[in-house]
């Protein structure tokens, strides 16, 4: 038998026993660790720890098995076999290199080795250690899996705190528990509340466990302004459940209207806030490429109350050129964030060569992140950062940089760019879903609307309502005809245009409607604005293919206007009415009379609340009267979005409805109505009454005795 065969034959059983011994000791450790982790972090943590533990145990077992090599075999044979005569190394020596005596000894050792089996060298099982570890693993696993979690199993009921007096034969709430099961994406634990009032994440599952004394027959939960929820019996308890999709008020009615009304309880549903994105570096929104810079690494921070998805998208837009010759390219890059889920950092590395960013261009980046809300994650776009690479051919400003470069270029607002965006969208139509295709088209339509507003200002804004209809019934189509015309579009301030900055923040002395063009140029500009209006209409309806012809014609008209030579602005003063010189310095007051405008009372949208507040008045200036609670309740429902605390107002209204003579309830409702109504606009202070000197002066003016 050769040396290799001897080595494999005599080490294989020992290696197998060493591997199994190590696995039998390591697997219980992995199971206990996974059970404890699963108890804390859930099933995902359990599986992850179990996989890591088994993998680590396998690696350690294999390393222990590989220790049984030729050196170990030689040492073991010499130690346990006296007949090897401390010469076991000769079994693996090359026969060609041995002398006659060494070769004879090698043959004798091989014969002696064949007379025995390799089981002599196999180690014993670690029975005591293995038994102890497996027993401990089973005990720990059973304890972790069977011990009830917080919020699992039958709840412990707390004594009721409703404070209702006991009446014979009428059930009342004796014990209570409210179990709150938050949505899975929040990763919040299930919890039990001894009180029936709670603040819970929106979408949580609520489970009530109640006990009545004496036992009730048909108890129910009665939400305020909604249908009651019947409880079902579970042994000695009554249970009910519903989801907290919105905040609500409710009461536990054990006797279906018999006895005193139970108090109201409140559930506040806290909505999931959208993520917040802010730029960490650079500190300013506009940066400039430095000498030798070939890459850019902006850093964004994304925070959320329940966590941000680790993957995000970085939208990069390159703008190369100036004026109408600007070319744009847009792409989205997938990036990964680092840090905890509730506060992630995103630091993309943008290589200029890879992106095609060159001198004379601008790079605009914007981070788009989502939170982990399920279903329907919320997507948020962060602030835009601009990196500018100045053109090498930029003219010198001779120290007047502040006057030469005072505004940013008008991004996304040129007619040529609108055409390019629409054509690019048509090429991507097959790869986009319908909603995103419509959204992109509507966004381009918004850019067209802004550009149309910029050109319409030279026409006095008369084109903002769209072109006039060339039909005979155009004069009869307007406000009050029963059609929905929508709000009149207002010209948006031009982004980056110096004249728009002056119009918004400056004090121009030329009235915009007084600006004029020569008739021929004005007619061409009017045609351009009409074509823009039609292009905008088609884009906002999701039809960029039909908008392109109008957009091309608008661009052609704009080029003609730019080439016009007779564009001027009128600089005239105000035209005041002539002064009648015949009435000057005569002192005649004939025909002069005070003509005050009649003031009509205006009833605001807080009319029902104001009427109820006056009817609930108390004290010396009390204005009593009937209270229209139904109208007030409808007002609370309709204005709930702007009220500071609509649930508290609904609860106070319900208390007054149930006991109209309760002075404390009426005072509370009146106080809440005062805080809910809109504040009246400020008025000028009343003039102080005349003192003694002022009174004598007024009498003297009237011709009386001072």
Please, could you describe this protein's structure?
It is a single chain. By secondary structure, this protein is of the alpha+beta class. The chain has 17 helices and 23 strands. Strands 1, 2, 3, 5, 8 and 9 form a six-stranded antiparallel beta sheet that branches. Strand 6 and strand 7 form a beta hairpin. Helix 8 runs antiparallel to helix 12 and helix 14 packs antiparallel against helix 15. It is flat, with a radius of gyration of 43 Å.
Which helices and strands, and how do they pair?
Layout: H1 3-41, H2 43-65, H3 70-80, H4 100-114, H5 127-146, E1 158-159, E2 172-181, E3 191-193, E4 198-201, E5 204-213, E6 220-223, E7 229-230, E8 232-234, E9 237-244, E10 248-253, E11 265-270, E12 276-281, E13 286-288, E14 295-296, E15 299-303, E16 311-320, E17 327-336, E18 343-346, E19 350-351, H6 352-355, E20 361-370, E21 379-389, H7 401-404, H8 415-427, H9 434-456, H10 498-505, E22 516-517, H11 519-540, H12 544-562, E23 567-568, H13 607-615, H14 629-638, H15 646-658, H16 663-676, H17 692-701
Parallel strand pairs: 4-11, 13-21
Antiparallel strand pairs: 1-2, 2-3, 2-5, 5-9, 6-7, 6-10, 8-9, 10-11, 12-15, 14-19, 15-18, 16-17, 16-20, 20-21, 22-23
What key phrases describe this protein's structure?
six-stranded antiparallel beta sheet, alpha+beta, 36% helix, flat, five-stranded mixed beta sheet, 706 residues
Give the tally of β-strands: 23
User: What characteristic shape results from the CA principal axes?
Assistant: flat
Residue-averaged pLDDT: 78
End-to-end Cα distance: 147 Å
Low-confidence stretches: 394-412, 462-515
Task: Return the structural class.
Answer: alpha+beta
Radius of gyration: 43 Å
Percent of residues in beta strands = 15-25%
Number of helices: 17
Summarize the main sheet: 6 strands, antiparallel
Approximately how much helix is present in the residues?
25-40%
């Amino acid at each position: 038998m050769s040396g290799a065969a001897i080595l494999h034959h005599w080490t294989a059983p020992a290696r197998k026993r060493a591997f199994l011994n190590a696995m039998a000791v390591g697997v219980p450790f992995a199971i206990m660790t996974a059970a404890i982790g699963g108890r804390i972090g859930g099933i995902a943590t359990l599986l992850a720890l179990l996989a890591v533990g088994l993998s680590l145990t396998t690696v350690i077992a294999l390393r222990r098995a590989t220790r049984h090599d030729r050196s170990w075999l030689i040492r073991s044979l010499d130690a346990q076999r006296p007949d090897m005569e401390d010469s076991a190394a000769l079994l693996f020596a090359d026969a060609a290199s041995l002398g006659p005596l060494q070769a004879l000894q090698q043959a004798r050792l091989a014969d002696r080795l064949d007379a025995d089996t390799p089981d002599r060298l196999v180690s014993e099982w670690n029975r005591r250690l293995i038994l102890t570890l497996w027993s401990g693993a089973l005990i720990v696993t059973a304890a972790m899996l069977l011990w009830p979690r917080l919020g699992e199993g039958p709840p412990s009921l707390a004594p009721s705190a409703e404070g209702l007096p006991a009446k014979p034969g009428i059930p009342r709430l004796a014990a209570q528990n409210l179990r709150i099961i938050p949505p899975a994406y929040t990763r919040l634990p299930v919890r039990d509340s001894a009180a029936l009032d709670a603040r819970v994440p929106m979408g949580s599952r609520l489970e009530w466990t109640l006990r009545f004394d004496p036992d009730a027959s048909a108890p129910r939960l009665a939400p305020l302004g909604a249908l009651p929820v019947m409880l079902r019996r579970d042994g000695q308890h009554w249970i009910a459940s519903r989801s907290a999709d919105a905040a609500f008020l409710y009461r536990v009615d054990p006797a279906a209207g018999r006895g005193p009304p139970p108090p109201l309880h409140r559930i506040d549903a806290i909505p999931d806030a959208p993520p917040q994105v802010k730029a960490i570096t650079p500190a300013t929104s506009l940066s400039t490429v430095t000498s030798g810079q070939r890459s850019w690494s902006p850093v964004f921070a994304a925070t959320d109350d329940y966590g941000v998805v680790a993957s995000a998208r970085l939208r990069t837009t390159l703008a190369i050129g100036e004026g109408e010759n600007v070319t744009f390219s847009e792409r989205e890059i997938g990036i990964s964030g680092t840090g905890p889920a509730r506060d992630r950092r995103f630091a993309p590395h943008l290589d200029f060569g890879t992106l095609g960013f060159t001198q004379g261009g601008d790079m605009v980046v914007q981070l788009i992140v989502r939170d982990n809300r399920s279903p329907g994650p919320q997507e948020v776009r962060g602030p835009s950062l601009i990196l500018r690479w100045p053109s090498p051919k930029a003219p010198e400003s001779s120290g007047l940089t502040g006057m030469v470069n005072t505004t940013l270029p008008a991004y996304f607002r040129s007619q040529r760019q609108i055409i390019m965006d629409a054509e690019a969208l048509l090429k991507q139509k097959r790869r986009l879903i319908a909603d995103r295709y419509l959204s992109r088209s509507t966004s381009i339509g918004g850019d067209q609307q802004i550009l149309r507003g910029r050109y319409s200002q030279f026409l006095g804004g008369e084109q903002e309502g769209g072109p006039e209809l060339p039909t005979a019934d155009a004069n009869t189509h307007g406000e009050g005809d029963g059609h929905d015309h929508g709000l009149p579009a207002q010209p948006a301030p031009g982004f980056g245009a110096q004249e728009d900055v002056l119009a918004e923040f400056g004090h121009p002395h030329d009235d915009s409607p007084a600006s004029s063009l020569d008739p021929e140029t004005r007619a061409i500009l009017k045609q351009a604005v009409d074509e823009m209006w039609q292009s905008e209409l088609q884009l906002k309806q999701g039809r960029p293919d039909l908008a392109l012809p109008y957009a091309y014609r608008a661009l052609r008209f704009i080029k003609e206007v730019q080439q016009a030579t007779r564009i001027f602005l009128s600089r005239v003063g105000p035209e005041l009415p002539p002064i009648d010189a015949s009435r000057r310095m005569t002192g005649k007051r004939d025909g002069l009379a005070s003509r005050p405008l009649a003031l009509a009372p205006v009833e605001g949208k807080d009319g029902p609340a104001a009427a109820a507040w006056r009817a609930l008045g108390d004290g010396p200036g009390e204005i009593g009267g009937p209270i229209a609670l139904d109208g007030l309740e409808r007002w609370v429902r309709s204005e709930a979005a702007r009220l500071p605390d609509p649930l508290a107002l609904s609860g106070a209204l319900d208390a007054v409805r149930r006991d109209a003579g309760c002075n404390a309830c009426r005072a509370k409702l009146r106080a809440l109505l005062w805080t809910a109504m809109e504040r009246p606009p400020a008025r000028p202070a009343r003039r102080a009454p005349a003192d003694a000197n002022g009174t004598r002066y007024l009498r003297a003016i009237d011709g009386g005795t001072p």
